[in-house]
Design brief:
Order of helices and strands: HHHHHHHEEEEHHHEHHHEEHEEHEE
Largest sheet: 3 strands, mixed
Shape: extended
Strand content: 5-15%
Radius of gyration: 37 Å
Distance between the termini: 128 Å
Number of domains: 3
Structural class: alpha+beta
């Protein structure tokens, strides 16, 4: 009896010394992935119990939110918040989605869905913050920036623009206006009906132009607390403003060659379809006939970068080697012997003599045309011409070097003009840009530039 009372009082004393011993025996502390050692110290047992309770509570929360149907708005909010607070951002990279689903006792699809919400929303999820923030009363009016780069268009902002961008102009090559295109620009969705425009500068240069403009100066002088960063300015530039990309000349020489190569491309494509040609060299050569850049990339040496011609924007002069563009000796410069069309023309059946002479193709070619009231004026005009594929290939072989030389001069002179503008000395120099070309639209969508003596 004395021994039993001693043991009884010892248990009571142990329970008084360890107030958490009853909780350690609770099912809420037990979890398959938590090792509970009854002989461990009190601190270790407390940690094991806390870990078990956290896992059990998380599992119960996930299981209560698991559903096979559509969640309500409240459940969606709770689901996103649970995913944010319990799932690791490295869960997918560590390939632990399946293990997490087993740990929490829910399906792997639920974990994937929660992880997706977590990745999409991040810590700024609508589950933790309001879905819409109140508009700041001191926010910079982005529509002012939009109007600054949008000449010849109705203003969107109520604030008058003091000056306009000098680096943006109307694209005269495209006369059709946009018809209700919707874009996100200047912080809101707009339905745009703009006329296409071009910019003769980078987005960074446009940003600096606005920050140095009279419009920005007036706004900040009246409200010194207002400011706007370069990235926000770039987000206010209308998508109708495209970078000026004049890469191909539109003179009669280049236009004739362009129409010729496209006609050969259609003819060779038809021959390859009929013969079922699978030659890789033939396929590559045919693809190069789609435009002039691809053609010269296939027939000539690669472009090189010339030192000493860098613009202030960092753009370098990338151009083909001058000898590659020569068909004969010019002063002390000899034509390149490493490249040429004769080195790349395929030897397959598509380019056999019989195939080239029997295949008829049609392309636009400059031909003498009678014009005037009395039909007594002879003028060269682009008109449909039908000839053999062999005839067209012979014209390409004879003319491509002359076209390459012409484009080399055009590219070099254009870059030199921009170089002169960048390093212009207003005290001792003057730069003149004269445009003597006239553009005419002919039938069939053909645009003719500088084709008559009137210019």
């Amino acid at each position: 009896m004395t021994y039993c009372l001693s043991v009884y009082f010892s248990l009571i004393l142990f329970a008084a010394m360890d107030p958490f011993c009853d909780r350690h025996q609770s099912l809420r502390c037990r979890h398959p992935q938590v090792i509970f050692d009854p002989t461990a110290s009190l601190e270790e047992r407390n940690l094991s119990c806390a870990a078990g309770q956290l896992l059990n509570q998380s599992a119960a929360t996930w299981q209560s939110l698991q559903t096979s149907g559509t969640r309500s708005i409240e459940d969606q909010t709770a689901f996103k918040q649970t995913a944010l607070t319990t799932l690791s951002p490295d869960l997918a990279d560590a390939k632990l989605i399946s293990a997490t689903s087993r740990l929490l006792g829910v399906s792997a699809d639920s974990i994937r869905s929660g992880y997706k919400h977590r990745s999409d929303d991040g810590l700024s999820s609508t589950s933790l913050h309001p879905s819409k923030r109140a508009a700041r009363v001191d926010a910079f009016d982005k529509l002012v920036v939009y109007d600054f780069f949008h000449p010849h268009e109705p203003p969107k902002s109520n604030y008058p623009v003091a000056d306009m961008s000098q680096l943006v102009s109307i694209n005269k090559n495209h006369t059709n206006r946009w018809k209700g295109k919707t874009h996100f620009v200047a912080g809101e969705h707009m339905t745009l009906t703009c006329a296409p425009k071009i910019r003769s500068a980078t987005l960074g240069q446009l940003s600096r132009e606005f920050l140095e403009s009279e419009t920005y100066s007036q706004i900040t002088s009246s409200n010194p607390m207002l400011s706007i960063c370069a990235s926000t300015i770039q987000g206010c530039i209308c998508p109708c403003i495209k970078e000026e990309t004049i890469t191909e000349c539109a003179c009669p020489k280049c236009s004739s060659f362009d129409f010729l190569t496209k006609g050969v491309y259609e003819g060779i494509t038809s021959v390859r379809r009929q013969t079922g040609c699978t030659d890789a060299a033939c396929a590559a050569w045919t693809a190069s006939l789609r435009n002039q850049d691809m053609f010269f990339d296939a027939t000539m040496c690669s472009k090189v970068t010339l030192d000493g011609f860098d613009l202030l924007s960092g753009k370098k002069l990338s151009i083909r080697r001058f000898p590659c563009c020569l068909s004969s000796q010019l002063d002390n410069v000899s034509p390149c012997v490493s490249c040429g069309i004769e080195k790349v023309i395929p030897k397959c059946e598509c380019f056999s003599t019989d195939s080239l002479s029997s295949t008829q193709i049609t392309w636009l070619k400059q031909q003498e045309t009678l014009e005037g009231k009395n039909h007594d004026v002879v003028t060269l005009r682009f008109r449909d011409y039908t000839g053999t594929l062999g005839e067209a290939m012979e014209l390409i072989c004879n003319d491509y070097k002359n076209v390459a030389f012409h484009q080399w001069c055009k590219s070099f002179n254009r870059h030199q003009f921009h170089l002169d503008c960048d390093y212009f000395d207003g005290d001792s120099e003057i730069v003149l840009l004269a445009d003597f070309a006239s553009a005419m639209k002919l039938g069939g969508g053909v645009k003719v530039v500088c084709e008559s003596d009137s210019t």
